[in-house]
């Protein structure tokens, strides 16, 4: 089985959970003896682990459009598209591709991030996908998240191969319901064209069915998992200069993640316990607001903002923590609690997170219930028996949530869609 996967980021260069999930799933699927994966991203850096898949960068794909005639376009694409789609594509191609090229090889440059002109990069990525789709051998197309749905659709039109899309999040999660119409349109178009839709939780599956009007039979849940702890991670030592307890929030500081509820809960805890410090690791558009809120609550001396952490620094922070908390308002899944529990950190998560569906040894509260959150934090840091129970049972539970199992479920989906096409 050969899969052509479209993604946007891949470790070690990641900006969120999408890259982590893409790595884990592909690595888990690579344990299947006949599985071959070509993973496409906008801009590889050259230090990605390619021991179990092949990384292909759209920034290295020559896109030769300048001298293409109408007859050539008709021959290549007309048979795969309805007339409206074909003429829209042709007019776009002829609009002004002289501004598209940024190097002498005819390759499009990509930032490899989430720039201000993100929609333009998504469009350029889909153009490259059409070239890749005609040159690579594969049985199934797999697009990860909305950024790559247009690429997957383009590849499907070009090849006639089945398309599976993977919904890691929707704009309803990212925006607290203030949905961007352009993003929603891209998401729905991807879902409409997909042969199967994979969601990372039942929470996300319900959103896809209800908000994007998809057939429930077309939408399946495959929960995320966590990579086994490596020897390098095992060797990382916690950084502790004091006997004070440390409670950690680690993630994007955006409205989706509910950072204000963490600050408010910290304020409640500090009214009863003084031997505790709170850490909000990450960055995002609400960071300055959270700094001001901590100051307003009078807890700045006990509240720390170390910025975005990656690689070993993430595990240094987790291993130095007594409690990990994810108070997300809407979290499609959330891998970070699994990573925390994996290294023995008692964890509190919101009931509005997808991982709450599979975790029995994490404390769950509503994201808005600041008192319940504060009580849970206080109980863990003050009662050693509860701390040890959550530490041991949580680690035991998460050690059995493996990407290999998720990969087997995805393989079954591939077999299903390919058998329908054959």
Notes on the structure:
It is built from 16 helices and 13 strands. Helix 13 (336-342) crosses helix 15. The two termini are 13 Å apart. The longest helix has 19 residues, at 403-421. The protein has 422 residues and is α/β, with parallel strands linked by helices. It has two domains: 2-63 and 100-225 and 403-421, Rossmann fold, CATH 3.40.50; 231-398, Rossmann fold, CATH 3.40.50. It has helices at 17-29, 70-78, 83-95, 118-135, 149-159, 171-175, 181-193, 202-211, 231-235, 259-270, 287-296, 312-319, 336-342, 370-382, 384-398, 403-421, and strands at residues 2-6, 36-41, 54-57, 140-144, 163-167, 196-199, 219-221, 245-250, 276-281, 303-307, 323-326, 347-350, 363-365.
Q: What are the defining features of this structure?
A:
Rossmann fold, six-stranded parallel β-sheet, 16 helices, 13 strands
Task: Please write out the topology.
Layout lengths: L1 E5 L10 H13 L6 E6 L12 E4 L12 H9 L4 H13 L22 H18 L4 E5 L4 H11 L3 E5 L3 H5 L5 H13 L2 E4 L2 H10 L7 E3 L9 H5 L9 E6 L8 H12 L5 E6 L5 H10 L6 E5 L4 H8 L3 E4 L9 H7 L4 E4 L12 E3 L4 H13 L1 H15 L4 H19 L1
Parallel strand pairs: 1-2, 1-4, 2-3, 4-5, 5-6, 6-7, 8-9, 8-11, 9-10, 11-12, 12-13
């Amino acid at each position: 089985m050969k899969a052509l996967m479209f993604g946007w980021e891949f470790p070690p260069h990641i900006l969120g959970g999408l890259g982590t999930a893409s790595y884990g799933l592909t690595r888990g699927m690579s344990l299947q003896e006949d599985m071959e994966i070509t993973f496409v991203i906008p801009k590889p850096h050259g230090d990605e682990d390619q021991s179990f898949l092949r990384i292909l960068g759209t920034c290295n794909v020559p896109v030769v459009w300048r001298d293409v005639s109408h007859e050539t376009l008709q021959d290549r694409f007309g048979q795969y598209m309805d007339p409206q789609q074909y003429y829209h594509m042709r007019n776009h191609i002829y609009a002004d591709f002289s501004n598209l090229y940024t190097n002498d090889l005819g390759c499009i440059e990509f930032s490899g991030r989430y720039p201000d002109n993100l929609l333009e990069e998504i469009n350029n990525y889909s153009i490259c996908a059409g070239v890749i789709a005609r040159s690579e051998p594969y049985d199934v197309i797999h697009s990860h998240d909305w950024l790559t749905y247009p690429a997957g659709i383009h590849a499907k039109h070009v090849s006639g191969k089945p398309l599976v899309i993977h919904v890691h999040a929707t704009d309803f999660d990212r925006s607290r319901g203030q949905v961007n119409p352009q993003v929603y349109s891209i998401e729905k178009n991807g879902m409409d064209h997909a042969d199967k839709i994979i969601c990372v939780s039942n929470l996300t599956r319900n959103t896809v069915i209800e908000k994007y009007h998809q057939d429930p039979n077309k939408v399946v849940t495959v929960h995320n998992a966590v990579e086994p702890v490596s020897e390098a991670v095992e060797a990382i030592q916690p950084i502790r200069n004091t006997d004070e307890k440390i409670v950690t929030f680690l993630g994007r500081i955006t409205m989706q993640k509910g950072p204000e509820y963490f600050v408010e809960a910290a304020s409640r805890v500090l009214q009863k316990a003084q031997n505790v410090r709170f850490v909000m690791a990450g960055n995002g558009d609400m960071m300055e607001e959270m700094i001001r809120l901590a100051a307003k609550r009078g807890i700045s001396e006990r509240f720390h903002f170390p910025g975005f952490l990656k690689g070993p620094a993430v595990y240094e922070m987790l291993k130095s923590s007594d409690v990990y908390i994810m108070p997300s308002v809407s979290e499609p899944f959330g891998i970070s609690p699994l990573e925390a529990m994996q290294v023995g950190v008692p964890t509190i998560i919101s009931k509005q997170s997808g991982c709450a569906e599979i975790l029995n040894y994490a404390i769950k509260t509503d994201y808005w219930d600041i008192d319940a959150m504060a009580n849970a934090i206080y109980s863990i840091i003050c009662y050693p028996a509860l701390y040890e129970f959550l530490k041991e049972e949580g680690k035991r539970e998460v050690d059995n949530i493996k990407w290999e199992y998720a990969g087997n479920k995805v393989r079954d989906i591939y077999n299903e869609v390919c058998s329908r096409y054959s």
